[in-house]
Amino acid sequence: EHEDTGLLLQPLLEGQNYGAAAADGTQCPSVSVSRNNPAKRDCLVVAVLCFGNLINFIDWFIVPGILLDIQKYFGLSDGKTGLLQTVFTLCYMLAAPIFGYLGDRYNRKIILGAGIFFWSGVTLGSSFITESHYRIFVLSRGLVGIGSASYSTIAPTIIADLFEEGKRTTVLSIFYIFIPVGSGCGYMLAAGMAKSTGDWHWAFRVTPCMGGLALLLLILLVPHRIQRRTAAHRALSISGTIQRADEMPDVHRTAKTTWCQDVGSLAKNCSFVCSSLGLTAMAFVTGALGMWMPLFLYRAQVVQGIVPPCLQESCNSSNSLIFGGITIGTGILGIIAGAEAARRLRKINNKADPLICATSMFISALCLYIALMVAQTNILSTFIFIAFGELFLSVNWAVVTDILLYVVTPRRQSTAIALQILVSHLLGDAGSPYLIGVISNAIQAKNIPSLQWSFRSMQYSFIICAFVGVFGGGFFLLTSFYIEEDRKEAQR
Description:
One of its GO terms (cellular component) is membrane. The protein is mainly alpha-helical and 492 residues long.
């Protein structure tokens, strides 16, 4: 069923429209939803979307949380192990433009619900795969990626429609906090279930239950249609002028374009292109860290004699638990700090957003390089510098999305997000886990097999992430040269 994109502003049968509710500064009270109180309804919608985002990223990082167990269970090399996350990301990436196209034209609630149901079912099914069916396990991860793409592409556009620019950054920050929180919970849930049950398969049987709850909440609490916001909506909500759709210019009906025309227009948007390339570098680094860091820490501890090599049925999962906790803590702090820095610095510099992103990328790259260099001699210092590296990476999540939402016109936002997902994952975390594994394999093949070279091969292959982070900072600097002009163009 199509969403009503023909209307620019519905008659005020319920007192206020979404934009006015968000713009007037009304806070979100914790009371039951009412059709006559859009502010309460908007807050419940955001809460449901955040819960779905949490489950989305828990599913994403279950595999890295029990990587040692999976590698041992299927008898995999580093290259084949990295392929698991690469297949997931490739399917996620390729499905994103399709869902972006559908999200700009069809009912977004139905698409979100179908995505949750699909990825939850596949995750549950993958928990019953035996060691002789590794290819089926790889396929299941790809299918989960398709389901996840529907959510990540469409959910931010619903938030953009509910809130004006001033509040949108704050709400997006809350939404994106659940990326690191979900990622960290994925590590901790997987490691905890493997440890408590003695069988890593149980890690894949928890999130489907959470997905069922998210689907129920989506059906009950999210409106079937969420009105799309346009420049006309914003102008009216600011001025307080209310008109029926038939009294306003028929912008949507005269401005409909094909998907190819939308892509062509976005390709000319320098801020969108450069910030997407910066996000690609972020994705490359986070993808490699998310997949391999617990295993790298384990190998560093083996070389230092802190822990013994994994020979028993269930491997030591303490690094996954610690790394998961670091990911949650630094993610929350980083996203809040990024949003607050953006809010304050925008008042004195219109280029603040890309400059914040560039600075944080440069600092993150330096911290990750130091963490890799000290890993063989001081594991505590490694954890500290990894934490700082992840902290500064997390600063950018909400800020980058907000850049997209104000340099791209509203009716192209789902397509823009989908294209950004496609590019950032195609050149970023779709390949980085596999690339790190292949380089590690090549280094090991040229040296005598040993625990020392098992560690060094991962250490040397990881260094590429620090250099990619520097390139990402450079692309965000380029964004700062174009962002003012592109923002004015989108507002026009």
